[in-house]
Design goal:
Structural class: mainly alpha
Strand order of the largest sheet: 1-2
Strand content: under 5%
Helix content: 40-55%
Radius of gyration: 16 Å
Number of helices: 8
């Protein structure tokens, strides 16, 4: 899929959200009978999962060639040696924020991803959606997150927010 232009990228993202949120989905997607709408929380989780899977595959939304965007100088190198610019990752997280509250359980699952850029996208979106900012160091390894309790503490904070 070519997403090099702004209208196409926006159309793809909007299409994912609008199809799910308006109930325009198949019975297979909803787990119900044909014509039966899925619960909003299931739709939100599905939309968040689809976007995160897209990012996991390396298919990031990119600005159009003529679009002016803020570009940070902050970079991170993941466990495989690939370098990512923070503003690029922030742009991906911003695609998840409109899903809102119903994305939270799915995004919490992605905090355990083996690659830090995927954890960062989930973390950033969770902060934007919930306004909760638990300690979640960007450059820590997954093993560090688990061993030092940061992953569990973050999970508790965000799921507690979701439950209330």
């Amino acid at each position: 899929m070519n997403i090099s232009t702004k209208p196409k990228a926006i159309g793809v993202a909007f299409g994912i959200f609008s199809l799910g949120l308006l109930g325009c989905h198949s019975a297979k997607d909803s787990g119900g009978l044909a014509g039966e709408a899925a619960a909003p929380e299931a739709v939100g989780r599905r939309d968040a999962r689809r976007l995160m899977q897209r990012f996991e595959s390396g298919d990031f939304f990119v600005p159009a060639p003529d679009e002016t965007v803020k570009q940070s100088g902050w970079e991170m190198t993941n466990e495989k040696g690939a370098t990512f610019i923070r503003s690029t990752l922030d742009r991906q997280a911003s695609r998840l924020v409109p899903i809102g509250r119903e994305a939270v359980p799915e995004l919490v699952r992605w905090l355990e991803h083996r690659e830090m850029q995927i954890r960062y996208i989930a973390h950033k979106a969770l902060e934007e959606i919930t306004s909760q900012k638990p300690w979640f160091p960007h450059f820590a390894t997954l093993e560090e997150f688990r061993a030092k309790g940061w992953l569990e503490e973050s999970r508790k904070i965000w799921m507690s927010w979701y439950a209330h």
